Amino acid sequence: MVGCECAVCRSDDPRNHRYRCSVLISTPEGNILIDTPPELRLQLLRQRVALVHAVLFTHYHADHLFGLDDLRFISKHLGGPVPLYCTAEVERIIRTAFAYAFAPEAGDMPLGYLPKLTFQRIDQRPFVVLGQRVVPIPLIHHHYDVLGFRIDDVAYCTDVNQIPETSWALLQGVRILVLDALRHKPHPAHFSVAQALEVIERLKPERAYLTHMGHELDHETTNRHLPRNVELAYDGLTFSF
How do beta strands 144-151 and 154-157 pair? Predict the structure, then answer.
């Protein structure tokens, strides 16, 4: 947190050094990225990711979108536009926020100079990307509609403070759940730790990771008070499924 001198912000524990949320899923046909946060370039360099073959968007808020320009070199390596899977609402915001990428003169620019992007419209119906079936999970983020995504037996649900009744069935049987938990104190747009644990108790995944944490949550201290199958996520966390 800019300007903060709390123990977490001054911590030497690298697990307390948090960029904004994103996820990379490696499949036999390529890499699927969920969201493009402002630190995207740093995240891709840190993890030595050279290619992203498709991007899914949960919603259009700046902390999940404003690293999109860093895909300009990805399109050069792909030899064409990067497909973006998003709702009509998210597409509208992207076309406005990154209008220069869609201007008529942008078509004359060589690959790598501007982000080359193409849209694949999604809604609440399952879709296939790089041979992988993806199930969108409608979620509520204060008064915003956002999407979580389920791929096989893993679900990723960031930026949520309420799960609509119809979405619970889409989460049944998940083995690994990645879930929003901003802080201990309730928040109007995010689950608190206690609220996230209530969701986990209801779904009973084998493993759960809490994400989108604020600086109120120290990694080691918080983990000591979580159930055995739950822990805070951290930058660079990987697992197979």
Answer: antiparallel
